Amino acid sequence: MKDIKFNWGLVGHGNIQKYLQTAIVNLHPSHAYVFYGPGKVGKTFLAKNIAQTVLCDEYRKMGSLDSAVKVNPAELPCGRCDACRQFAKGMHPDLYTVEREVSEKTGKKKSVIAVGQIRDLLEKISQRAFLNSYKVVIIPEAQALSQEASNCLLKTLEEPAPRTIIFLITTNKNLLLPTILSRSQLFKFLPVPSDAVYEYLVAEGAGRDEARELARISRGRPTIAKHFLKDKVRFEEYKNNVQGVLKVLVNRPLERLKEIEKMFAEDKGGDVALKNLDFLAGLVRDALLCKLGKTELLANYFLTTELADLGARAPSGWFCGFLRRVENARAMIQGNVNPRLVMENLFLE
């Protein structure tokens, strides 16, 4: 079989891509994958590209037993067939995405994926594919599966439906049931090297200075760099939010509590807390780099003076310990501990 060009456009993760492409070319994709690692590094993006690939009409023909139909495609996904066009419009009938539902009462996303959602999903994928292709399920926040939902999904992983692929995307695989992990192929995603993000941004039309700036500030997360490149307002909002979190960090304890109260004034859910924990981790990392004299590695370069002042306030060990506490706080919030309480305890330690 001749080489196939994969039109995935993923930045980084070359070894993971090669492994999965080999499985696809050999017509042996796994029934379940767990993609885990930091947010915004390309996990969901890759899952969607694999989904489009196996749903593409060219891939279906590639696996046909009928020699009159069988083809060896030059590229996957082709982007031209009916299946690819439906996929691009978000209308492919054999692609299922399961996310937290929005509460009618609050208008915010619920904290968990309910068992009813998984039951509905399993009923759908137990049927024959609409387009005689694979059926693909993507769960972008698998750590949000409730205990009952996880147990319900486990039954399908133990007895997988034919020609069905399930992608479980998470920032922390330890929040998934061990039995789910043991029945899936696991892939750990790491932050993408800054040079790779920089080269991608330049190829997308960014100026070299702009690309260098966004590559640094994204901290190895291409999805964030892409968003900031396309949306300058969003980039300025990011800067304002980071400055707000820095204000909480350097204030006196009582003032910190007041700032946290403002933080949760409009949204008391875990999403705002997780976002601010990400900002906080970046600031503490940068303060430690300033302390070590590595200012050329700063992500939030626009706060160099403030970060240098912060770095001078405590020994290096304190910053390392605080970063560990930030990760513990993240795990607690993802485990549905009250986010405001977690944040207050973190900032008062």
Automatic annotation (TrEMBL):
Protein name, entry field: DNA polymerase III subunit delta
Name of one Pfam family that matches: DNA_pol3_delta2
GO biological process terms on file: DNA-templated DNA replication
Transmembrane segments: none
